[in-house]
Amino acid sequence: MNSLFLLVIGAVALAAGWLLHKLQSKAKVDSAENKAKELILQAKDQAIKITEEAKKQETEIRQQILRLEERLEKREEDFSRKEQELERQKKALEEKILETAKLKEELKAGRDQQAATLEKIAKLTREESKQILLEQTEKMIKDDLIGLTRKLVLQAREDAEREARNIVAQAIERTSAEVSTETTTTTVALRSDEMKGRIIGKEGRNIKAFEQMLGVEVIVDETPDAVIISGFNSVRRHVAKVTLEKLIADGRIHPAKVEEVYEKAKKEVGQMIKEAGEEAVYELGITTFPPKLVQLIGRLKFRTSYGQNVLKHSVEMAKVGALIAEELGADVSIVKQGALLHDIGKALDQEMEGTHVELGRRIAEKFGLSQKVINAIEAHHGDVEHSSLEAAIVDACDNISGARPGARRDSFEQYVKRLEELEKLATSFEGVEKAYAIQAGREIRVFIEPNKVDDWGAMKMAREIAGRIEQELKYPGEIKVQVIRDLRIVEYAR
């Protein structure tokens, strides 16, 4: 009986335990189902939010595309209108040519009559009177043609500049040239877009005077609160940046003010060059260089070799060379000097004839540097043999610094070299004051001395420069040669 009772109690306990476990399991399942439902609801809410955000972004992108299409259509209309205007100007020019030809015929018809009259009155021979008439006619036609040519050239120049700016702005908007932008352009921030109009000036006089004086191109496009200064010469480009920033800060922008501020900017950049040289020699612990040599070193801050900054490259060489020299037991001081000065000729290679190696040797000799330093300079490209261990270290450091990944870009160096050759060719003509290559080398602006070259000489020089470029240089497309003769006469009322 007791056994049966215990058996019943055990069965009841088991049943109760099973029932309790069942209830607990059901509670856990219900809890899990509730959590799953909550997660599903949260996922649905998140999906709705993501969908709405995607639709919003799609709407914004469509609006941007519509705006771009509208701008493109507007530019196409402007281009069509300008094309019609050029056609009208072409017809007007043809009419002027016909009128000139008719005038020549009339002059020819009256020339014999005048010759007879002169011979009769002044008792001149027919040949003498003919010569007088020819001189008078030539002078008259020459004056008329100068006026007509000047007017047509001025109109064509203005149209070409407007079209060039539109083309450049469109190209910048539709393409990406990161390497070129980093090395040939500088961005100047503006307080507001209203300043762009003051920079351009009435009929473009301010921006035209700025570009002609500083030898750079100013790109005023749709970039908000900024303009772009373009030019391959980094010194010229930085001077232009400082000049423009000063003009913006002053608020008064006109051709005379541009010239005044330009002179101040040149002095500031000169001081910056000096400080850059001093910082380089201080960083390397070199204290024996004279101040003029330090200033030349500072000019390397604005020189590049295959896209690599020459000053940074030289300082990097000096640091690497010092470590190598210490390991090999060489003269660390000589290695530092040779590495820092190995490309010093590039500070002058645009003003003097000769390779940068030859110019570097001359500079080192002029400042009385040691023969080991001179040999390191002239031997780093294999022009002469290494006469010391220090020279070999400098040569090796040059290869190390130039060969590291991303250090150099060959295409950019070739591009800059082509622009330098273009400017050098233009300045080789007698009477040329200065020359600037702009529009990525598609245009060369040549400023001549008005007291040495007249208007006819300027026209002749433009043709000769174009001929020399065709014969001596290799270039894609065509190059526009623009010769500018600017005569300024200043008087003071007292």
In short:
This protein is mostly helical and 494 residues long.
Written description of the protein model:
The protein is mainly alpha-helical. It folds into four domains: 2-174; 178-273, 2-Layer Sandwich (Ribosomal Protein S8, Chain: A, domain 1), CATH 3.30.1370.10; 285-408, Hypothetical protein af1432; 412-485, GMP Synthetase, Chain A, domain 3 (2-Layer Sandwich). The protein is 71% helix and 7% strand. It has 15 helices and eight strands. It has helices spanning 2-122, 126-174, 178-184, 194-200, 205-214, 234-250, 255-284, 291-299, 310-328, 332-341, 356-366, 371-378, 389-403, 410-427, 455-472, and strands spanning 185-189, 217-219, 226-230, 304-305, 308-309, 432-438, 443-448, 480-485. The strands form three sheets. The chain has a three-stranded antiparallel β-sheet with strand order 1-3-2. A three-stranded mixed β-sheet has the order 6-7-8, with helices on one face. Strand 4 (304-305) and strand 5 form a beta hairpin. The longest helix has 121 residues, at 2-122. The chain is flat, with a radius of gyration of 38 Å.
DSSP strand count = 8
Radius of gyration, whole Å: 38 Å
- Residue ranges: pLDDT <50 for 5 or more in a row? 164-182
Instruction: Record the strand order, biggest sheet.
Output: 1-3-2
Tally of DSSP helical segments: 15
Biggest β-sheet strands, sense, barrel? 3 strands, antiparallel
Number of domains: 4
Structural class designation: mainly alpha
Mean pLDDT: 78
